[in-house]
Amino acid sequence: MALLADLQAAFEPGRVVVPEHIHSRHRSDWGVALADDEQPAALVYACNAGDVSRALEICGRYDCAVVAQGGLTGLTGAATPVDGCVIVSLERMRAIEEIDTAAATMTVEAGVALERIQQAAAEAGFFFPLDRGARGSCQIGGNIATNAGGNRVLRYGMARDLVLGLEVVLADGTVVTSLNKMQKNNAGYDIKHLFIGSEGTLGIITRVVLRLFPATTSECTALCAVSDYDAVLAFLAHAKAQLGPTLSAFEVMWPDFYRLALEAHGMRPPLDENHSAYILLDTLGTDTEADQARFEDTIASALDQGLIEDAVLAQSLADSERLWTLRGLAGEFSRVFTPRIDFDISVPIGDIGVFIERAHAGLIAQWPKARVLGWGHIADSNVHLSVSIDEQPQPLEAVERTIYALVREYGGSISAEHGIGLLKKPFLDYSRSPAEIALMQRMKQALDPAGLLNPGKVL
């Protein structure tokens, strides 16, 4: 095969893997797998942007598709290969090139694990706020390519808000280096935003300049119970007003999620199980004594005003971790709640309470034994649902259409923080207008006219 021969000639021995020797883990992205009768043409381990450029230039000559891979922790199949493609793995691009303490930036290669970035920032006296459960294995290139979110979006924003500069390789092998360190740079179009969240369909991210923040020295955590969703909104407004910029997380759990979390972890209930919703409140600050006093006053005044029904405050780091363990149940669903169909959606914050009620009612009307768990980063409008139907196989398409039709009705988004990939592509027009999709297609045509980069994803 001429393509394989050219790739092998262009790279050192061991850097190009032939189809029969490609490890099975490269065939799927979080369970969305290549069909058994299909296989990639080759796997290339890139070590720098030049390697990525060389691979893309060779693949372009043969009209061969290219799929970039990193930690393979995505949740929509965005890094699943296609038949006959060349996989370009960035996992060997693991250098933390620079921490600029004056600019408060870190320059890294795309294959650096998120946890390493967090640790390096802490060692330098800074804080990098992007976080997710797969922090030890997910890689920053993929985090940026999917515009990852997480628990700290309320205070620090999405992944896109943490990026100052990028290096990207285009479909024709052109390397675009824009490793800007400045927060203010209005010199023409801010092209990095073309690639953030594009899931490798417009270019392959190879290096990133990240924003760092002052290290925090205090953390306050509380679990609160409320009577209904209106109380959730009232308490959020109260917390924002009282806690200001220290408020970093406002996580809501509906009762079924809370009860399953207690059961799964064998925990005694920190609060009674008869409330309508539970809120995990968290602050990060730099003045331990003042932050704690303000936090306690905020909870006390919320109780006095009837905004919350009950609360328990963490008295130690261990207490805080224990409360966060409840919210971390989602990472253990494969053990305690399966089979299931998962949803990562956004709904205007004022409508979330009614949305949850209608979603539950709509599912029960069709499948009376359906189980529905709800939780999410409500302060940034992000809701997660997990649905289990008492049928085998799970009626995936029917459940998705039920939920996504409701999302469309409320003007929400079918993807809050996980991307579109393969799994959500059929529903893109539920959240984007024909004009928006047409513009996306024009952008794709301009940057990748042959359609070789991650084909079949997003559009």
TrEMBL record:
Gene Ontology biological process terms from the UniProt entry: respiratory electron transport chain
Coiled-coil regions listed: none
This enzyme's EC code(s): 1.1.2.4
PROSITE patterns: FAD_PCMH
Pfam families: FAD-oxidase_C (PF02913), FAD_binding_4 (PF01565)
GO molecular function, one term: D-lactate dehydrogenase (cytochrome) activity
Protein known as: Oxidoreductase protein
Family: Belongs to the FAD-binding oxidoreductase/transferase type 4 family.
Keywords: FAD, Flavoprotein, Oxidoreductase
PANTHER family recorded: D-2-HYDROXYGLUTARATE DEHYDROGENASE, MITOCHONDRIAL (PTHR43716)
Top-level taxon: Bacteria
Residue ranges annotated for the FAD-binding PCMH-type domain, each copy included: 36-215
Cofactor: FAD
